[in-house]
Amino acid sequence: DEHAELIVLRRGSYNEATNRVKWQPEEVVTQAQLEGHRSMNPCPLYDKQTKTLFLFFIAVPGRVSEHHQLHTKVNVTRLCCVSSTDHGRTWSPIQDLTETTIGSTHQEWATFAVGPGHCLQLRNPAGSLLVPAYAYRKLHPAQKPTPFAFCFISLDHGHTWKLGNFVAENSLECQVAEVGTGAQRMVYLNARSFLGARVQAQSPNDGLDFQDNRVVSKLVEPPHGCHGSVVAFHNPISKPHALDTWLLYTHPTDSRNRTNLGVYLNQMPLDPTAWSEPTLLAMGICAYSDLQNMGQGPDGSPQFGCLYESGNYEEIIFLIFTLKQAFPTVFDAQ
User: How far is residue 74's CA from residue 170's CA, in Å, rounded to a whole number?
Assistant: First the structure.
């Protein structure tokens, strides 16, 4: 992490006939840098209503590490954003949102980060925007800073941002998904932890407050945890009493090492015991991943893209799979 420098992007065009993505050359997002700082934890967020693509990230001075900030309890991390109205071909100048969004609370944290990975626009009337994040809070002078997940929230399409309230302690890098409809709508949060398994929480008020914090024993973590990704998608099977939203989650499946990337399915999204056994997407060393719903696949079931770190952090791989490929028995049961 200390050797990160810049954020790069590659634009791909998906060909439905061949079911492949043709990637363009890598580009540096030159606007996404603060002078004297390195840019980390890219978090893209697309506002469908204003057709604006936001790219959130953190900026950290020089080679200052997260460990150093936790040791000194001096927070030098900045919250930054650039935006684009032409799907990332051109970008706005950088915005440092630290003072306007976090303010004096910044001094109460030893450090913080966003994401990494995709963010979320809600289906509520405001089209609220959520950026998942976590902060190491300095709760007691004699204790180490403690990590808590939360969301940055915008109710006005990204013009202003505020802090949501914290999930329970021992929750770090996280992602959010919207499940249910109408009065039953919830924001589901799934976070990395040091507890040997993921933690989850749910928000009944659009990411402001989280409750029902649970350890998800079926979703194992390696010793220091690892980032994982979660997306919601429409239930493709019309069974009586079936919930209309399902969840998909990717993460290394080994409780001892960051190896063997798996995908898990939950057909009862708020029930932590309802996660399936994983289907392996890739064998060998793997780490962070990010999922994206790509609509209906060629076999008629929902299709997903997964971007993940492979090898010894030397390669980033993009793969496409359908729900029917990953979980054929779900459809065979029909």
Answer: 20
For 283, the enclosing helix (H) or strand (E) is strand 279-296
**Backbone dihedral angles phi then psi of residue 330, each to the nearest 5 degrees:** -60, -35
User: Where are the domains positioned within the chain?
Assistant: 1-166, 177-203+218-333
CATH for 177-203+218-333 is 2.120.10.10
Q: Percent of the chain having pLDDT more than 90? A: 90
pLDDT of 78 above 60: yes
> Which of the four CATH numbers 3.40.50.300, 2.40.50.100, 2.120.10.10, 2.60.120.560 does domain 1-166 have?
2.120.10.10
Q: Which residues are catalytically annotated? A: 1, 258, 288, 309
Task: Report CA-CA distances (Å) from 116 to 3, 146, 192, 266, 287.
Answer: 17, 19, 12, 22, 12
Judge if 1-166 and 177-203+218-333 fold alike in CATH terms: yes
Could you report the per-residue pLDDT of 288-312, keeping only the tens digit for each? 999 999 999 999 999 999 999 998 8
Q: 313 near 289, Cβ under 8 Å?
A: no
Which spans in the chain are helix H?
66-72, 323-326, 328-332
Could you write out the DSSP letters of every residue in 175-224? EEEEES-GGG-EEEEEE--SSSEEEEEEESSTTS--EEEEEEEEEE--TT
